[in-house]
Amino acid sequence: MSMFFTIAAFLLIVIVIFQIAKASEYVSVLKGEEQSFKQSNKVNGALMIVFLILGLIGVYWCNKLLYPRTTLVEGSASIEGEQVDHLFWITLILTGIVFFATQILLFWFAFRYQYKENKKAYYFPHNNTMEIIWTSVPTIVLLILIVYGLRSWFLFTGDAPKNAMQVEVTGHQFQWNFRYPGADGVFGKKYFRDIDPANSNTLGLIWKDNGALKQKADPACFDDIITGTLYLVKNKPVELLINSQDVIHDVGLPQFRLKMDAVPGTPTRLWFTPKYTTEEMKKITGNPNYTYELACDQLCGNGHYSMRAVIEVVTQQEYDVIMAKQKPAYFAAFPDKDPANQQPAATDSTAAPAAATAAVRTTRDTAALALR
Amino acid sequence: MNNEAVIQTGAAALHVAGDHGEAHHHKQSFITKYIFSQDHKTIGKQFLITGIIWACIGGFMSVLFRLQLGFPDTSFPWLSTVIGHWAKNGHITPEAFYSLTTIHGTVMIFFVLTGGLSGTFANFLIPLQIGARDMASPLMNMLSYWFFFTASVIMLSSFFVQTGPFAGGWTAYPPLSALGDASPGSKTGMDLWLASLILFVVSQLLAGLNYISTVLNMRTKGMSMMRMPLSTWGVFLQAILGVLSFPVLFSGFILLIFDRHFGTSFFLSDIYINGVGALPHEGGNAILYQHLFWFLGHPEVYIVILPAMGIASEVMSTNGRKPIFGYSAMVMSMFAIVVLAFLVWAHHMFVTGMNPFLGSIFVLLTLLIAVPSAIKVFNWLTTLWKGNLRFTPGMLFAIGFVSVFISGGLTGIYMGNSAIDIHIHDTYFIIAHFHLVMGVAAFFGMFCGVYHWFPKMYGRHMNNTLGYIHFWITLVGAYLIFWPMHYEGLAGMPRRYYDYSTWESFKQFGELNKFISICVIITFAAQFLFLFNFFHSIFKGRKMTVKNPWKSNALEWTTPIKVGHGNWPGEIPEVHRWPYDYSKDGHDFIPQTVPVGEEDNPAYTSAAFTGIKVEEEQKRGVKA
C-alpha cells in the first residue's frame, strides 16, 4: 500500500513539474522570450548564492554530525598511524583553504556577474602573471605534501624494528588465519599443495614426508600455533607476513591506519606498533563493545563483506597466558603426538596465575574457531 | 583531385553524401539514414541515445544496490517480482549485489561516460567545429558505433545467463575473475563481460583513430590547431589517450582469457580453492594484471573527463559572453594531463606490496597531475569573473561541473599521497572521490553538452524550466549522496560490502546509509525530467527560429538549422580568428568566420550572425 502511495506521490510531483514547465513556455510566448529569459536568469542567479550559503551550512552540520563517528576522534591506535593522521590534518587545512576559496568565488561570481541588460563583459583573454602564480603556488604546496608524505611512506614500507614479533596472516574465502611461530620462534615451511582442511592442515604446513612432492617434514612447524583471532601486544611492534590461498584479499586495519593486499603466490608484509589495549580503547571511546577489527578490503567474492577477524591487543602478561593456552595445530592433525593425550592432566598448572579475563577470552576464541 | 582539394572541400564526404554535399538531394532509405548511417551527426546521436539507455540501466542498478545498503533489515517483496531469484525474501542476494555493483561500474565508465560522452560529442562536434564535411573515414566511424552496439548487446545478454553476470568488480582482478570456482559470476558471465569489452576496445580504437586523423587533416582553411574550440581539443586529446592505452587493456584481457581457458598461468600462482583443491597454476603474478589494467584504467578517467572539461569551457565562455581565460594555458594543461596520465597508473596499487621506491615515483607524478587541473579551475573562475552570465541549462551544468570537479579533485590529493592512501584505500572515501571528480563531473559535462547542442542536433529547443529543475535537484542530490561518504571512508568503512551491520567499527553509519539511499532514489527519479525533456523535445520541442541561438562564435552554428550530410551547403566557410572573441571592442560576439578587421567595418552587425534572416539564407544556400 505504501508502495502505491509512493508511486502516486511521485507521479503527482512529476505532473506538477511538467505543468510548471509547460506554463513557463506559454509565458515566454506571451511575454516574449527576452523577458522570460531575464526573469529565469535572476532566479537562477539568486539560487547560486542560496546554494552557496546552504551548502556551507550543510558542510558545517555534516561535520558536526559525522565527525564523531570517524576514527579520527580517538586518533590512531598505532604509533605509526599517528603520521597518517598528522599528514591528513595538514592536507585537510591546505585543501580546505582552496576548497572554500574556490567554491565561494565560483558561486559568488555566478551570482555577482549574472546577465544585466546594458552590461558588457570584460574582455580578458589571458594574463601571464596570474597564470604563472597559479601554476607555481600549487606546485610548491604539492611538493611540500609529497616530501611529508614520502617520509611516512618509507617508514611504513621500511623494515620492521628488530624486536618486532611476527605473525603470519593468511586469507582465504572468507576468513582469516593467524599463525604464530610457537616456542621455537621459527615459522615452519608450508606449501599450497599440502593444504588439506579435512585433516586439519588449513595452511599447508609440511608436517610429514611426501615423496610425490619431494618434501621432508619440517620440525619447525610442529609447534606453530594457528588462531582465528589476532593477538597483539601493546607497545610491541608487530610484523604481519601476509599470504592468500585463493584470490586477492586485503588486510585492512582501519583503527591502526594500515592496509596491505594478500596476494596468492606473492607474499607481502606490513608492520606497526599498537598503542592501546582493547580494554583501554573501550575506556577511551566509552564504548563497552569496542573491537579492533580486521576487514577484508579487496573484493574477494560473494562473502567478501563477512570476511572479518577480531584483533585483541593485550599486555605482554596477558599475551603470554593466552599463548600458553594455545595448542599447536599439529596436534589437531596428529592427536597421538599430543603430550596432553599421553599423560592426561599433567601440564595444566603452567597457566595457573592466568587473569580471569584472559581465560574468558581464550574460551571465546576457541568457541569462535569451533563455530567456523 | 589533389590532396589539398580533398581537405578543403571534403570530397570524401561529398562522395558519400551525393554530388553537392547536400543530403536532401540524395535519396537515402530509412536504413541508411537512421541505422547504418555514415553521417557523423547521426552516429553521434546513436552514441548518445545508446549511452542514455545504458545510463538508465546503470543508474537503476545503483538504486537496487543502494536499497540493500540503506535498508539491510527491510524486506521489499516487489524486488522478487522485478528481478526474480536475484532477490530472496525481499532482499537482494549477495551474488546479485556484487553483480549489480560490478556491472554498474563497468557500464557507467565504459558505455556511458566513454561511449556516451566522448563518442557523442567527438562524433557530433569535431567535423562541425573544425569545418569538415564528415569524419576522415565515415565507414570506420559507422563500424565503431556498431562494435559498441554489439558490445552492449553482449553485456546485456550476460544478465540472463544462469550463473549471473560477472560479479568481481569493474576492475576484474584475477584470480577472482579468472576462476569460475571462486565466484559464480566468474563463469559464463565473465566470458561475456570480456567479449563485450574486447569489442568495446575495438570500437574505441576505430573511433579514436578517426577522430585524430580528422582533426589533424581535415580542418577548414584558416582553422589552425590553436583556433579550435576547447571542446574539440578535449575530444581530440582523449582520443590520443584512448588509442595509446586501450591496446594495453586489450592485451590484459587476452592474457586473462588464456588463463581462464587455455591453462596458462600469467596471473595465477599457488592457489587452493576450498572444495576444489590446489590448482595446477604456478609462477604467475596476479599484480601483473593490475598494471595492465590500470595502464588503461587511469588514462580512462581522463578519457572521460577531458571531453567534459572541453565542453564546459566552450559553454561557459559562450554563455559568459567572455573569452575563456588563458586559452593556450587550457590547451597546454590538457596536454600535460595527457602526458602525465600515462605515468600515474600505479597509484591505484599502493597497497599491493609494490616496491616502495617505485611507489614514491608514482606519488610524485600523481600529485603533479593536480597542477594542470588546478590551472584549469582557476582559469574557469577567471572566465566567470566580470562576465555577463546567461544561465541556460547548459551554463548551469558547466558551473556545476566546476563545483563538483573542485570537490572531487581536492580529495585526489589525499588519495595520491601514498601514506594517506593506505588508510583510505578501498573505503568509501575513494567512492566519494571518484564519483564526484569523474562520475558526477563527467555527467555534468554530458548534460551541459546535450542542453547546449540539442538545438544543433534536432533543430528544436529543450524546455528550459525542466532543465533548471533538473540541474538544481541533481547538483544538491549529488552532494548529499557523496559528501557524507568521505566521513564513512575516514572511519575505514570498506567499499563493496553487502552488509555492515555485523561490524562493530562500521555499523554506526546505518542511519547515514539510509539517508544516502533515499537521496539516490530522489536524484535518480529527477533524471526522468531530463529523459522526458530530451525525448519529448526531439518531436515536440520549440522550433529553432534562428540558426545561432546562443550567439556563439563557433563554426557549427554557421550551418543551416536543418543540417544535411556534408554540413554546409556550398563552400565550407573560412576561419579567420579564434573562437572566443566575445565582448571584444564593443561587439557582443565576433564569429570565427569574420575576417580580422571586418568587425570594425560599419556594415558589421553581430545580429547578422544569429541568422535572423534564416529563410533567405537557406534559399541562397540551396541555390549555391
TrEMBL record, chain A:
N-terminal signal peptide: none
Domain Cytochrome oxidase subunit II transmembrane region profile as annotated: residue spans: 65-160
Transmembrane residue ranges: 47-66, 87-111, 131-150
GO biological process: ATP synthesis coupled electron transport
Annotated protein name in UniProt: Cytochrome c oxidase subunit 2
Cofactor stoichiometry and binding remark: Binds a copper A center.
Family recorded in the similarity comment: Belongs to the cytochrome c oxidase subunit 2 family.
One protein family per Pfam: COX2
Biased amino acid composition, Low complexity: 344-358
Catalytic class of the enzyme: translocase
Automatic annotation (TrEMBL), chain B:
SUPFAM superfamilies: Cytochrome c oxidase subunit I-like
GO BP annotations, alphabetical order: aerobic respiration; electron transport coupled proton transport; respiratory electron transport chain
Membrane topology field: Multi-pass membrane protein
InterPro entries to which the protein is assigned, alphabetical: Cyt_c_oxase-like_su1_dom, Cyt_c_oxase-like_su1_sf, Cyt_C_Oxase_1, Cyt_c_Oxase_su1_BS
TM region(s), chain numbering: 47-69, 103-126, 146-172, 192-212, 233-258, 292-312, 324-345, 357-382, 394-416, 428-454, 466-485, 515-535
Any one GO cellular component localisation term in the record: membrane
Domain (Cytochrome oxidase subunit I profile) ranges: 30-594
Subcellular location field: Membrane
Coiled-coil annotated spans: none
Name of the protein this chain belongs to: Cytochrome c oxidase subunit I
Family under the similarity heading: Belongs to the heme-copper respiratory oxidase family.
Record bears the keyword Iron: yes
GO molecular function ontology, one term from the record: cytochrome-c oxidase activity
Keywords (A to Z) from UniProt: Electron transport, Heme, Iron, Membrane, Metal-binding, Respiratory chain, Transmembrane, Transmembrane helix, Transport
KW Ligase (keyword) present: no
